[in-house]
């Protein structure tokens, strides 16, 4: 049914990883094309030993395309995705443009695969900070029903795009050489600093990034009663987001049980050995497709509280990997 594929935003940071993951996957397509903004037209891309020219993202580029996987800025996704759908193409979208549309399923394949098959042409992939948290919450929710979550994030510079990474590297260099640097992506210096704002002011003193963690989590978990308090912070880490997650469940989950639940859930790796200084760290998780958890302990201040540390590559499971897994899910077909 899906014979031809387009990768939209193929030359961007997430797009490049999508191409790499598709190349390594077992997926086969009769036709594949790579689309990007005018700026990238003429660039070439090698895919499974063949060279492809990057084509311009235009509505007509979707003629004859069955399936697209897309990573673009929100405004581009708002404009082009309806054009693709009009032409019979199913789009897996990494942007935030369509995530909260009630007609659009928001999917993490390990968590709510069934939702993907309700699509009307668009399937959205969640925000990076939401995805890793929800993967970790799902086994706890299935066992003990999650009632409340307090999460603080430590988000890497790469989450803000290539400009974010450049700001971190150049800003660090300038700081060490004691010369000024004009940050282009961040509103404040990131080197040797933290910025407790990601996104724009959105609701009651919370930012758009924090509200994504609240609203997207409830949509994916199909449970509007889950209470979530999020604080999102940009940290001077190159790649991979980290989170401290405090979860209160209806049924008590002991540390041993949590470890067992995490370890048996697909896509989660437990690294939890405090005496031997073993826990997930951004450097170790970069380039990996899983969600890593560690520092699992009881919350000493509440009867059914559990706290843990969660790290994942924001460009991979937080973006490209999840989108490609949705493509694999669609091709594999509905779970029984
Ligand atoms: C960030 N979560 O890290 C965003 C990217 N979607 O800025």
TrEMBL record:
Q: Which SMART domains match?
A: Semialdhyde_dh (SM00859)
Outline the extent of the Semialdehyde dehydrogenase NAD-binding domain: 4-119
Q: Which residues are recorded as binding substrate?
A: 155, 234
UniProt binding sites for phosphate: 99
What residues does NADP(+) bind to? 11-14, 39-40, 158-159, 314
Which GO MF terms does the UniProt record name?
aspartate-semialdehyde dehydrogenase activity; NAD binding; NADP binding; protein dimerization activity
- The protein's Enzyme Commission number: 1.2.1.11
Arranged from A to Z, the UniProt key words for this protein are: Amino-acid biosynthesis, Diaminopimelate biosynthesis, Lysine biosynthesis, Methionine biosynthesis, NADP, Oxidoreductase, Threonine biosynthesis
Active site at: 128 (acyl-thioester intermediate), 241 (proton acceptor)
**Can the keyword S-adenosyl-L-methionine be found in this entry's annotation?**
no
Stretches of the chain forming a coiled coil according to its record: none
Q: What processes in GO biological process is this protein linked to?
A: 'de novo' L-methionine biosynthetic process; diaminopimelate biosynthetic process; isoleucine biosynthetic process; lysine biosynthetic process via diaminopimelate; threonine biosynthetic process
- Which Pfam families is this protein grouped with? Semialdhyde_dh, Semialdhyde_dhC
Q: What metabolic or biological pathway is this protein involved in? A: Amino-acid biosynthesis; L-lysine biosynthesis via DAP pathway; (S)-tetrahydrodipicolinate from L-aspartate: step 2/4; Amino-acid biosynthesis; L-threonine biosynthesis; L-threonine from L-aspartate: step 2/5; Amino-acid biosynthesis; L-methionine biosynthesis via de novo pathway; L-homoserine from L-aspartate: step 2/3
Q: Please list every transmembrane segment annotated in the UniProt record, as residue ranges.
A: none
Which SUPFAM superfamilies does the record match to this protein?
Glyceraldehyde-3-phosphate dehydrogenase-like, C-terminal domain, NAD(P)-binding Rossmann-fold domains
* InterPro entries (alphabetical): Asp_semialdehyde_DH (IPR012080), Asp_semialdehyde_DH_beta (IPR005986), NAD(P)-bd_dom_sf (IPR036291), Semialdehyde_DH_NAD-bd (IPR000534), Semialdhyde_DH_dimer_dom (IPR012280)
Q: List the catalytic activities from the record.
A: L-aspartate 4-semialdehyde + phosphate + NADP(+) = 4-phospho-L-aspartate + NADPH + H(+)
PANTHER family recorded for this chain?
ASPARTATE-SEMIALDEHYDE DEHYDROGENASE, DEHYDROGENASE, PUTATIVE-RELATED
Q: What does this protein do?
A: Catalyzes the NADPH-dependent formation of L-aspartate-semialdehyde (L-ASA) by the reductive dephosphorylation of L-aspartyl-4-phosphate.
Subunit structure, briefly? Homodimer.
Q: Which family does it belong to?
A: Belongs to the aspartate-semialdehyde dehydrogenase family.
Against NCBIfam families, the record matches this protein to: asd_B (TIGR01296), PRK14874.1 (NF011456)
- This protein is called Aspartate-semialdehyde dehydrogenase
**Originating organism:** Thermogutta terrifontis
Q: What is the lineage of its organism?
A: Bacteria, Pseudomonadati, Planctomycetota, Planctomycetia, Pirellulales
């Amino acid at each position: 049914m899906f014979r031809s594929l387009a990768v939209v935003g193929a030359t961007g940071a997430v797009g490049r990883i999508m191409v790499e993951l598709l190349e390594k996957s077992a997926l086969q397509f009769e036709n594949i094309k790579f689309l990007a903004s005018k700026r990238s037209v003429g660039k070439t891309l090698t895919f499974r030993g063949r060279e492809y020219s990057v084509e311009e993202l235009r509505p007509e580029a979707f003629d004859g395309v069955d399936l697209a996987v897309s990573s673009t800025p929100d405004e581009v996704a708002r404009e082009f995705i309806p054009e693709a759908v009009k032409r019979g193409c199913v789009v897996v979208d990494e942007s935030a443009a369509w995530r909260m549309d009630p007609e659009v399923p928001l999917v993490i394949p390990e968590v709510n695969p069934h939702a993907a098959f309700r699509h009307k042409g668009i399937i959205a992939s969640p925000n990076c900070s939401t995805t890793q948290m929800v993967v970790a919450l799902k086994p706890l929710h299935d066992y003990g029903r999650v009632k409340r979550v307090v999460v603080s994030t430590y988000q890497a510079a790469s989450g803000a795009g290539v400009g974010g990474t450049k700001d971190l590297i150049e800003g660090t260099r300038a700081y060490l050489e004691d010369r000024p640097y004009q940050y282009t992506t961040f509103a404040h210096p990131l080197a040797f600093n933290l910025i407790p704002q990601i996104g724009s002011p959105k609701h009651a003193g919370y930012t758009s990034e924090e509200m994504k963690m609240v609203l997207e989590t409830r949509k994916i978990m199909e449970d509007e009663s889950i209470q979530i308090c999020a604080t999102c912070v940009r940290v001077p880490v190159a790649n991979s987001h980290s989170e401290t997650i405090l979860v209160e469940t209806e049924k008590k989950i002991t540390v041993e049980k949590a470890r067992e639940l995490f370890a048996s859930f697909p896509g989660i790796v437990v690294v939890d050995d405090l005496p031997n200084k073993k826990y997930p760290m951004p450097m170790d998780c970069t380039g990996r497709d899983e969600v890593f958890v560690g520092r699992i302990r009881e919350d000493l201040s509440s009867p059914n509280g559990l706290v843990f540390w969660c790290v994942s590559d924001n460009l991979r499971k937080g973006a490209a990997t999840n989108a490609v897994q949705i493509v694999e899910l669609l091709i594999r077909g509905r779970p029984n």
